[in-house]
Every structure is written in C-alpha cells, then in structure tokens.
Amino acid sequence: MSPSAPSSDAPRGDAEALIAGLAAAFGALPQVAAVALGGSRAGGAADDTSDIDLYIYTRADVPLSVRQAIVAAAGGVARADWAADYWGPADQFISATTGHEIDLVTFDAAWMEAQLRRVLIDHAPSLGYTTALWHTVRVSRPLADPAGWFAGLQALAAADYPEPLRRAIVAYNRPVLGDMLTSYRAQLAKALDRGDLVSVNHRLAALLASLFDIVFAVNRLPHPGEKRILAHLAARCPSLPEGLADDVAALLAAGGTAAPATLAHLDRLLGRLEVWLAAEGF
Q: Above pLDDT 70, what percent of the chain?
C-alpha cells in the first residue's frame, strides 16, 4: 500500500454517494449500455473486507483517460491499478475520499448477452461454474440503464432454471470426477504417487469446481461463484449429499500430505455424491 493510502482501520466515507456518482458518470457515456452494482454488496453478503464491484457494460471501448477522469472527479484515488486486465478488463482503486476499494469491471454487452443465452437458451454446460455469469446478472443492482438494455437482460436472467440445462450440467461434469481414465480422481492419484503437491492442489480445485456445479444445478440454483461456496450451499440448497461440508473440509485438510488418506476422503465424498444423485433421479 502506498504511504497515502488509507489504513484498513480508517473510517470509511459514504459508499452509496460514491457508487451513485460513478454510475451516473459512466452511464452518461455513449459507449456504455448499463452500469450495475455486483458482488457481495448486491447480494447482501458484504463484510468489512468486501470491495465495491461496479460492472460497466459497454458497446465500445472507454479509453483509460476517460475512466481516470471520471474517477478523479469522484474524489480521486489513494492507490490505483489501472487496466489491471489479468482476470478481464478492470480498474481497481482505493477512493481517496472514502477509503473504499472499488473494482470497475468492464463487460462487453453483446458478449454477456451471449453468455446468458448459451446457458438459458442453448443449455450448454461447462466444466465448473456453468451458471456463474447468470447469477452475476440476476443478483446485480442496476444503477444506470439509459436504453433499458440491462432490464431486458435481467428479464432473461429471471427465468426458471431450465431442466435441460440442469441435466446437461450433471451429465457433463459427473464423468470427470471419477469415472474416466483421465478423471480428476485418476489425475490426483498419479500426482499423489509422484509427490507433486502443486498438481494435487490444481486437480482438487478443478474437481471441486465440477462437483459444486453439479450440486447447484441439482438444486436449480445459478452458481454464486468461488467465494463462500460452503456457506451458500448450507444456506440456499434444500438438498445436499450427506456430510458434504465435512467431507470437503477433510479432503482439503489432507492436502495431499498422505496419499491413502487423501484418496479415502475423496472416495467418501464421491461415493456420497453418487448416492445423493441417484436419490435425486440422476
């Protein structure tokens, strides 16, 4: 953190005024189709560590100089990472006037619309996180929508969970867990035999991504993303495999330190998943 940046325990200023000012300024640009508040603040799960996620939906590029000018007019920055596009186009900064951390995420409007149609109309699954962008749009709070485009997108996102999509997600993600020659379980066993703990970590993360994709789909819930997944499962899913949270915790705690223990925890997790899927009609 730069010397001028607010400390983590510094008093915070008015977040709502900052959000409204940024949304109005970006929403007035001709390139911008809509501005929405996302992340934990939109979903009602924000805590003291949560940043402010502002989603800027565009139809053409907004130059960096324009973005910087808007932020400067909103009070400036104590620290900024401009064009930090490692996980998609975004600017991150700490507001000089309020101390809040802001994540300005840019989405191409046509691309986002295509992502929703991919799952809600075409029922196309992915390996993990199939419906995370659907969830993003569904729970976002519109802040600027000059032509009503975002209202239309949220109307699409309000649709009931399509049964063909639900079954496609299970059918696509289930075999890679443990049934195939190159399943995540098989890859984990090889990595454990080699003592390759980095590979073990990668494969565990991928396996859990597919497993959670299945669980949210069976419960007809769009995937809420990678944060607080176990809390989301406990709070929102009426049906879960037996001992899911305990089995996941035990598997991660084993962490590849002992191959037999890690695989035993994994096999119990996958076995209970199969029992549950059968009971749910899969």
A: 91
